[in-house]
Amino acid sequence: MGLLQPESGLVFWMLLSFAVVFVLVAKYGFPVILRAIDSRKEYIDSSLDAAKKAERKLDGIRAEGEALREAAEARQREILQDAAETRERIVQEAKRKADAEGQRIVAAARQQAVAEREAILQDARQQVALLAVAISEKLLREKLADETSQTQLAERLFDEFEQHQNTERS
Asked: Given CA atoms 141, 146, 151, 153 in this order, what sign does their dihedral have?
């Protein structure tokens, strides 16, 4: 026989050994392999389920994070708005106080100016009065050198005083 044509005894023993190995593998090997494949399949399925649960949980956490971020942004806007309102109120209050203080300072300056003007006028009146008295004294000394002119002046002053008293009573 040649290389390509085996003998019938060899084929018989090869078929018999194949059948024995196949039966042994089918009875003992395949169930173990199938169980290993099934357990691997279950492990993969459970891993996929866990991954899906994790993804859902992650989506929930993302949504919660987004909600928290939006709430934080809203709170930030509220705080910034409150700060702007407070700043505006403080600026307005400062302007109002500055205006009031400015008006008070201007009023005080006006009062001081009026008081100084009155003091200057009073001083000028005193100076004029002193000057008038001094001039009058010199004039009277010259005019009233004799006794008759003194008497006439006294009578005239007394008459003017009486007239002034009478007009005040009326």
From this structure: negative
Model pTM score: 0.41
Residue type, 61: I
How crowded is the C-beta side of 19, counted as CA atoms within 13 Å?
6
Could you tell me where the DSSP H helices lie in the chain? 8-24, 30-143, 147-169
Measured distance CA(99)–CA(17) in Å, rounded:
116
108-142 pLDDT, tens digit per residue, is: 999 999 999 999 989 888 888 888 888 777 777 76
Q: What share of the chain is helix, strand, coil (3-state, %, to 5)?
A: 95, 0, 5
Enumerate residues 6+ apart whose C-beta is below 8 A from 144. 150, 153
User: Distance between CA 55 and CA 62 in Å, rounded?
Assistant: 10
